[in-house]
């Protein structure tokens, strides 16, 4: 898109979260929100930096929307604090904050035109009508809805409504834009394109975007960093690659992407930094990459392997050593770019492995009920202690 | 037989339906029609037709007591409808918006109670109240009484609209820089305005045709139009009464039509969304 050329390259600093000297834009410190006996947000601490796209990811009811509403000022902070630019937001009502929110329902004012909706926040600032008109035109160009100025919300398509909501939320140039499930109401067909555009708009405005989503592929596609929430707690914060390659727990591993989990017991370590494990599902034994924490021999752990990090080889290979296991193909799902094999292991345990259909290596002998040997890449097998 | 079942109701049953409907609407509207027709009767005798005339409408204009009563009714109607609309809308907002609080369910049910309360009881209890607090009965007691019982109609109407409103609309307004009261003025009020207007018109018509409650709480010098008409009718129905009743029927019909048109247009606009 030519807009990118026009506005130049990515203005964000590279990974400010990795720089101990960087000053966060938002500091959430042990924030808590209780509804009666339920603690919806439970001791969340998080630093957000200027210009980053942060996705709060979690299943419904995990507290992610409540946390977003606490940032907007719609929910009080029962314990802990939220600081924006070093200023405690505690006593500030929503209309006194430098955040703006894009609502899941879009919440467009049905009695106002598109232009009046977008200019609503500017009108509250008491700006001159000509200034508002110019700014609204600029915003409409930014989200590519020129020509719709005089429409009413009920005359718009879902995608157009979403753009109006985005433009309206950006109008006051907030330091932080809060987006509650921005793609939820869109067709799957236009979702991917809209994700790309949203990211571009974020680069061009330079604002910090905090996006709440339950869709892990959406979070992976858009986020600079992802915060995974479960049961009101922030269980892991990291780049999409961190979350995918180094999940902190079984729960995170299961929630993000597809995964095979094996229960195992630590036996020892090799000189080249691999952990040797005894694993009932894999009789030949398993070696996996060392995690950050300490492991003790005899410690029960889980080993997680992504389907694409396994290789399915035809036939029962006689020299099935460590990281090799025999099985029978129980189901084959052809997904176009991938083929996913469901393999039943000798012990009856199911395992899922995928292969890229790159056309160069059409493997023979991988039909239904075929005997196969699955090889697990040691470097990609993750040891999970939680 | 099977053919009949396919096409719905058999013809004989449809004839019955038509007959019952005719009977029903006759019961409802023939008496009203008689009043209107005989208001154009040239004869002084109400039940004897003597040709078309509008002279009773002309003589209405010189019937001082009737005109005074009409003026009082109109004043009471407008004022009580205004009070009822403000208070009723307020109550509707509190009941829908302020979330769960102690006694909310009881209050919600209590709003509907006056809708089915016999007017005699409303009138009597208000009379006792006004006597107890020593309020002189007259214009103001009727106004207060009418505002009291029509308020709950407004509440029910506005509440029905409010529950369909997306709660995040007001939040969005606040997020964009409105104080809670500014958000109400700029977003909520315009969106419920048709229901509020419909409530006002309904309250106005309820006040205009109330006889029972007004009779209980009125005092000397405050005679509403229905009271005057009832008083005169007891001495004998005159063609003039037919005429003023026809005017009243016209006014009430207009107000009710306007109210239902407002709500209907509102519903249609929402369905489009």
Helix and strand composition category of chain A: alpha+beta
Largest sheet of chain B: none
Helix content of chain B: over 70%
Find the biggest chain interface.
Answer: A-B, 25 and 22 residues
Multimeric state: heterodimer
Give me the number of helical elements of chain B: 12
User: Could you state the CATH homologous superfamily of the largest domain in chain B?
Assistant: MetI-like
Structural class of chain B: mainly alpha
Mean pLDDT of chain A: 86
What does the largest sheet of chain A look like?
Answer: 6 strands, mixed
The number of strands of chain B is: 0
Question: Helix and strand layout, with pairings?
Answer:
The complex is a heterodimer of chains A (386) and B (273).
Chain A: H1 2-7, E1 26-35, E2 38-48, E3 53-57, H2 64-72, E4 79-84, E5 87-88, E6 99-102, H3 114-124, H4 129-142, H5 158-170, E7 176-180, H6 188-205, E8 208-213, H7 216-222, E9 225-230, E10 233-238, H8 240-245, H9 250-255, E11 260-269, E12 274-279, E13 282-289, E14 300-305, E15 310-314, E16 324-334, E17 338-345, E18 350-356, E19 371-376, E20 382-384
Parallel strand pairs in A: 3-8, 3-9, 6-7, 7-8
Antiparallel strand pairs in A: 1-2, 1-4, 4-5, 9-10, 11-12, 11-14, 12-13, 14-20, 15-19, 16-17, 16-19, 17-18
Helix pairs in contact in A: 3-4, 3-5, 4-5
Chain B: H1 2-6, H2 11-39, H3 55-60, H4 64-97, H5 104-116, H6 119-132, H7 139-162, H8 167-175, H9 180-208, H10 212-217, H11 225-234, H12 239-272
Helix pairs in contact in B: 2-12, 4-7, 4-9, 4-11, 5-7, 7-9, 8-9, 9-12
